[in-house]
Design goal:
heterodimer, A: 269 residues, alpha/beta, Rossmann fold, seven-stranded parallel β-sheet, three-stranded antiparallel β-sheet, 8 helices, 29% helix, B: 583 residues, alpha+beta, Butyryl-Coa Dehydrogenase, subunit A, domain 1, Butyryl-CoA Dehydrogenase, subunit A, domain 2, Butyryl-CoA Dehydrogenase, subunit A, domain 3, four-stranded mixed β-sheet, 10 strands
C-alpha cells in the first residue's frame, strides 16, 4: 500500500532567458522593460516531479512563491499544471538566499509537508543555496541535484513515472543524484528537502482546461512579518555588468600555423 | 458612455465629421485576471508548438497536419477558446482569443487557421444564434474537439456573391432534405459539425436562405480530397457534398429564411480573429528579419547597418503597431457590447492582411536568396499569407462594404434633408422664393450634415496635439468628400467602384490612425512622454503616411484617370490580351 504524500514545491518568477536581457548603464540591476517572465525552469521540474509522485501516491501538492502580486502568474502556472493550491509570501524588494530559505523554512513548519522539492538553483542569480540552507535549518535530510538513470527519451519518462522513489513504509526517499563523473544514490528519512537538476524529468505543459481550473484554486497570502522572518539582506549586490563581448576569431592558412599559434599564443598545448 | 448598443459605429459618425472619442478612448487594456490567464495560455501554447517548429515545414510540404498532432491540439484544449465556461470552454473575450490566435500564427498559419475556422466561423453561428438546446447538445463536444467545426457557404458558382448559392433545402415532414456542393471548406475533411447555408426560397427568390447545423453522422454527407494549395497547405481544405441529407427540423440555426443575415453576422464577428492572426505573423517576421539582418554580413558589415535594410525594418514595426492597435480596438468594441463594429472589423481585415503581405514580402527581400529557399521560413510565410486577402470576404468586396456601409447614414440624412426642403420648392411664396439647384446644395451643406458636433478630440494627451489637429482636419475633409460624392452619385454610388474604393481607403487609414492615436496618447498619459519616445515616433511616421495618402486620395476624387483606365481595360477585354507586341 502507498502512503499519501504532501509535497511542497517552489515557483520563483525569473526572467525568460529568451528575452533580451540588458544591464542598466549604472550597473544597479537589469532593465526591466520589455522583459518576459516565467517560472524558474528548475522549479518547473520540481513541480512536475511532485505531480508525478502525488499521481502515484495520492496526497496534496502546494506551491510557494515569494514576491509582489506579479508572482501570481507563476503560482497560477504551477496550479494549471496540476498543483492543488498556492501560498504567496507577499514581499517586494531585494532578498538574499538566507532570507528566502528563512521564509520557506517557516512555510514548511506551517504546512508540514513530507517533502519539499525545489529547483537546485534559479536561473536569474544561480546561487544554488536555498535548498541546502532550508534543510539545515529545518534539521531535515537533503538530496540535492536529483537526476535520473534513464534518458529523457525513455519509456518511463513518456509514461511520466516519478524518478524519486519513496520507501514502502512512506518514511524514506531514494534519490539519484548527479555528481562529478556519474550518478550517485542517496536515501533520506522523510521529511526531506530535494533539489532538482535538469535531467530529472520533462515538465508537462499546462493544458487549457488546467488553466481554467487554476483560476479558482486558492492562493493564501502570507507576509515576512507574519511569518516572523527578518528579511533585511545580509548580502547586497554592488554592481552588475554585462560580460565583455567575445573577440573575433582568426583564420589560419594551414595546420602548421594552427599548431604553432596554439603553442605560442594560446599556450594550450 | 451612453448605452453602447444604441450608438452608431465610429466610422459612420466619422463620415458626418463627428469623432466619437468615447468609443476609442482610453485605449483598451485587458483586466489583470484575464491578462494573467492569457499569459499562461501563451506560455503553454509555446511549450506545445515550439517542439514542432521543424515539423511545420515538413507538414507544409506533405500538405497535412498529422492526426496525432490534431489530437494533441484537442487534448491541449485549443478548440475550446471561445466557448463559454458553462459549456466546458475557456470563455475567452474577443481580445484574448485574438491574442491567442496571434501566438499560434507565429508558429504556423495552418494551425491558426484550423483553430480559427473552427472558432471564428465554423461554430460562431451556434454561439450567436443557437438555441439553448442546440448549445447544450453541441458546445461541450466542440470544446473538447470531439467535434471540429467547419463553415460551409462558398460554392463553385457562389464566392463573393454569397446570395447566389444553389445548395437547396426542402422541408419534408419532420426534416429538411439538403442537396448541393460546397467548395474550399476549411476543416472539411476533419469536421464533424458543419454550419451549412442552403436556399430555402422558391425560384427567383434570391437571397432566401437558411442556416443549418449538419453533423457528420447524417447519411449522405461526403467530402472530397484534400486540395493542393499555394499556402496554408497543412490546413485541411475540401469540397463537401450533400446528397439527400435528412436534417432534423430542430437543426435550423437562427430563423428560417434569415440565413444571409446569419452568414454576414458570423463573418463580421469572425474577421478580428483573422486580424489577430496577421499581427502574430508580422511579429514573427520582424523577429526573423532583425536576426537575419544582424547575422548576414556583406561588404564587411552586417546588412542591418545599411539604410535600405533599416528602412524596411522601420516600416514593418510601424505597420505592425498600427494593425495591432486597430485589431485591439475592434476586439474592445466587441467585448464591451458595442454592436456596430462590422465596418471597423472589415477595416482590420483589409489593413492587417495587406500589412502582413507587405511585411512578408519585405522580410523575404531582406533575407535575399535565402528568402527564396524552402529551407528558410520566409517563402512559406509569403505563401501562407496570400490567401488572407482573398478569403473571409475579398479585400475588394470589403472595401465596397466599408465605404457603402459607413456612408449609409449620411445618405439617409441627405434624403431626409432633401425631402424636407422639397416643401420649400412646392410653396415658394411661403418659403425662400425660387432656389436654384445650386443654392439647394449649398443650403443643405451649410445646414447640418457636415457641421456636426464633436468635430474635435477633447481627451487626447497634449503631447499628440499636432497629430490630433491633423486627424480632425482629415475628418472634416472626409465628411465633405462623403457629402459631395453622395450628392454627385446619389444611389448610383453602388456602381461607382473607383470612387467608392478611394473613400474606403481614406476610411481604412483614418480608423487605423485613430486607433494608433488613442493607443499612443493613452500610453503617454500613463507612463509620461519620455517613456514613450518610440511610440511617438511610430505615431509620427504613421500619421504622416496616412496624411499624405489621404490627401492624395482626396485629390483623386476630381483629378484622376478613371475613364482612361476603364477604357484600357475594355480594350484588353475586347482583345483578350495585350496588343502591342512588336514581333
Amino acid at each position: 500500500m502507498l502512503f499519501p504524500m504532501k509535497i511542497l514545491v517552489t515557483a520563483k518568477r525569473v526572467e525568460d532567458p529568451e528575452s533580451k536581457i540588458k544591464v542598466k548603464p549604472d550597473g544597479t540591476g537589469i532593465v526591466p522593460e520589455g522583459l518576459k517572465y516565467k517560472i524558474n525552469p528548475f522549479d518547473e521540474i520540481a513541480v512536475e516531479e511532485a505531480l508525478r509522485l502525488v499521481a502515484k501516491h495520492k496526497g496534496e501538492t502546494v506551491v510557494v512563491s515569494i514576491g509582489g502580486k506579479e508572482v501570481h502568474e507563476q503560482l497560477r502556472h504551477a496550479m494549471a499544471m496540476g498543483v492543488d493550491r498556492a501560498v504567496w509570501v507577499n514581499h517586494t524588494g531585494p532578498l538574499d538566499q538566507m532570507a528566502i530559505a528563512g521564509l520557506l523554512k517557516k512555510v514548511c513548519e506551517k504546512e508540514k509537508p513530507d517533502m519539499a522539492i525545489l529547483g537546485k538553483q534559479s536561473i536569474d542569480d544561480d546561487q544554488n543555496q536555498v535548498g541546502q540552507y532550508m534543510a539545515e535549518w529545518l534539521g531535515w535530510g537533503q538530496a540535492t541535484f536529483a537526476s535520473k538513470h534513464e534518458s529523457l527519451d525513455s519509456d518511463a519518462e513518456k509514461s511520466k513515472t516519478p524518478a524519486l522513489v519513496v520507501g514502502a513504509d512512506g518514511k524514506t526517499v531514494k534519490v539519484v543524484r548527479e555528481v562529478d563523473g556519474g550518478l550517485g544514490t542517496v536515501e533520506c528519512t522523510l521529511p526531506a528537502v530535494v533539489t532538482t537538476d535538469l535531467r530529472l524529468n520533462q515538465p508537462r505543459y499546462a493544458p487549457l482546461p488546467g488553466i481554467m481550473k487554476a483560476k479558482s484554486k486558492p492562493i493564501e497570502e502570507l507576509t515576512p512579518a507574519g511569518l516572523g522572518v527578518d528579511v533585511a539582506p545580509k548580502l547586497t549586490v554592488l554592481k552588475m555588468s554585462a560580460p565583455a563581448p567575445r573577440k573575433a576569431g582568426i583564420k589560419v592558412p594551414d595546420v602548421a600555423t594552427l599548431m604553432q599559434k596554439l603553442k605560442t599564443e594560446a599556450k594550450v598545448i | 458612455m451612453a448605452d453602447p448598443k444604441n450608438q452608431s459605429s465610429f466610422m459612420s459618425s466619422l463620415c458626418f465629421g463627428s469623432i466619437e472619442e468615447d468609443l476609442i478612448l482610453p485605449y483598451p487594456q485587458m483586466k489583470q485576471p484575464e491578462r494573467e490567464t492569457l499569459k499562461n495560455i501563451i506560455g503553454s501554447l509555446e511549450q506545445l508548438l515550439k517542439p514542432h517548429e521543424k515539423d511545420f515545414r515538413v507538414w507544409d510540404r506533405a500538405g497535412e497536419l498529422p492526426p496525432a498532432f490534431i489530437e494533441e491540439l484537442k487534448q491541449f484544449g485549443l478548440f475550446s477558446l471561445v466557448i463559454p465556461e458553462a459549456f466546458g470552454g475557456m470563455g475567452l473575450s474577443a481580445t484574448a482569443y485574438s491574442r491567442t490566435l496571434q501566438e499560434a500564427a507565429k508558429y504556423d498559419a495552418s494551425v491558426s487557421v484550423t483553430v480559427g475556422a473552427h472558432s471564428s466561423i465554423g461554430m460562431r453561428g451556434l454561439l450567436l444564434f443557437g438555441t439553448d438546446a442546440q448549445k447544450q447538445k453541441y458546445l461541450p463536444k466542440l470544446a473538447t474537439g470531439e467535434m471540429i467545426a467547419a463553415f460551409c457557404l462558398t460554392e463553385p458558382g457562389a464566392g463573393s456573391d454569397a446570395a447566389s448559392i444553389t445548395t437547396t433545402a426542402v422541408k419534408e415532414g419532420d426534416h429538411w432534405v439538403l442537396n448541393g456542393n460546397k467548395l474550399w471548406i476549411t476543416n472539411g475533411g476533419i469536421a464533424q459539425f458543419f454550419t451549412v447555408f442552403a436556399k430555402t426560397g422558391g425560384v427567383g427568390e434570391r437571397g432566401h436562405m437558411t442556416a443549418f447545423i449538419v453533423t457528420r453522422d447524417l447519411a449522405g454527407i461526403s467530402t472530397g480530397h484534400h486540395e493542393d494549395k499555394m499556402g496554408l497547405r497543412a490546413s485541411n481544405t475540401t469540397t463537401v457534398h450533400f446528397d439527400n441529407v435528412k436534417v432534423p427540423l430542430e437543426n435550423v440555426l437562427g430563423e428560417e429564411g434569415k440565413g444571409f443575415k446569419v452568414a454576414m453576422k458570423i463573418l463580421n464577428s469572425g474577421r478580428t480573429g483573422l486580424g489577430g492572426g496577421t499581427v502574430g505573423a508580422m511579429k514573427k517576421l520582424i523577429e526573423l528579419s532583425t536576426k537575419q539582418a544582424k547575422e548576414r554580413v556583406q561588404f564587411g558589415k552586417p546588412i542591418a547597418e545599411y539604410g535600405l535594410v533599416r528602412q524596411k525594418l522601420g516600416h514593418m514595426v510601424v505597420e505592425c503597431f498600427a494593425a495591432e492597435s486597430a485589431v485591439n480596438m475592434v476586439n474592445h468594441f466587441i467585448d464591451s457590447g458595442h454592436e456596430e463594429y462590422a465596418v471597423e472589423a472589415a477595416i482590420t481585415k483589409v489593413f492587417g492582411t495587406e500589412a502582413l503581405w507587405r511585411t512578408a514580402d519585405e522580410a523575404l527581400q531582406i533575407a535575399g536568396g535565402n528568402g527564396f529557399m524552402c529551407e528558410f521560413p520566409y517563402e512559406r510565410m509569403v505563401r501562407d499569407s496570400r490567401i488572407n486577402r482573398i478569403f473571409e470576404g475579398t479585400n475588394e468586396i470589403l472595401r465596397l462594404f466599408i465605404a457603402l456601409t459607413a456612408m449609409n447614414e449620411v445618405g439617409g440624412e441627405l434624403k431626409e434633408l432633401a425631402s424636407s426642403l422639397k416643401g420649400v420648392f412646392d410653396n415658394p411664396i411661403k418659403g425662400f422664393g425660387v432656389l436654384s439647384e445650386y443654392a439647394l446644395r449649398r443650403a443643405s451643406l451649410a445646414t447640418s450634415v457636415v457641421k456636426r458636433e464633436k468635430g474635435a478630440f477633447t481627451k487626447l494627451h497634449p503631447a499628440v496635439k499636432e497629430k490630433q489637429e491633423q486627424f480632425q482636419e482629415l475628418t472634416r475633409d472626409l465628411a465633405a468628400a462623403v457629402d459631395r460624392i453622395l450628392r454627385k452619385h446619389g444611389k448610383n454610388i453602388i456602381g461607382k467602384q473607383f470612387a467608392t474604393k478611394r473613400l474606403a481607403d481614406i476610411m481604412i487609414d483614418l480608423f487605423v490612425l485613430a486607433s494608433t492615436l488613442s493607443r499612443v496618447s493613452t500610453a503617454i498619459s500613463e507612463k509620461g512622454a519620455t517613456a514613450c519616445t518610440k511610440e511617438l515616433e511610430i505615431l509620427e511616421v504613421f500619421s504622416g503616411q496616412v496624411r499624405r495618402r489621404v490627401k492624395s486620395n482626396f485629390n483623386k476624387i476630381d483629378d484622376n484617370d478613371d475613364e482612361h483606365i476603364k477604357s484600357l481595360a475594355d480594350h484588353a477585354l475586347d482583345a483578350e490580351g495585350y496588343t502591342w507586341d512588336n514581333v
